[in-house]
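Appendix B, record 7
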Amino acid sequence: MLARLARHLGRAGVLSLTLLALAAPAPTQAAPGDFTFEVLRNSCTNTGKDFGHGEVLLKVKVKENGASGANKFVFAAIAQHYKKRSDTWITEYTFDTVKVKFPDDANSYFHTRWFAYDPKDGKKHRIVVVMKILHNKQVLASRTVTSKSC
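Structure tokens (predicted):
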């Protein structure tokens, strides 16, 4: 099809199309430095709290640095229970998904969120959080963080 178009347009037409394609703006893509993901707290206790078996706590922060094109943060987290016999982690609790919207402008935005889980038994537990930075429905950056297990 391109060969037929090239014959039809001739060299001058193909050159014009090529220059036009090169001059057209590329889709905006965020640079790696436009986003930061941080773990602010990652702790585990084996005793106390609600059920006497301790607590797993994971506090995270996500930041968008200025005009990156982003307009939403999403946090999805689960608490998992370790099954020693099968050497697998099983989802025991799913936290509500958190969505934070903000304007796509030149200002910087951040959101801090903590997830805590108090297990009902003395087995090993952990929290897994997936943090995403989006522009509408397009994921611009993502990071998965796993807490300490206890």
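Remarks on this record: The first strand starts at residue 35 and ends at 45. Residues 110 and 142 are 14 Å apart (CA to CA).
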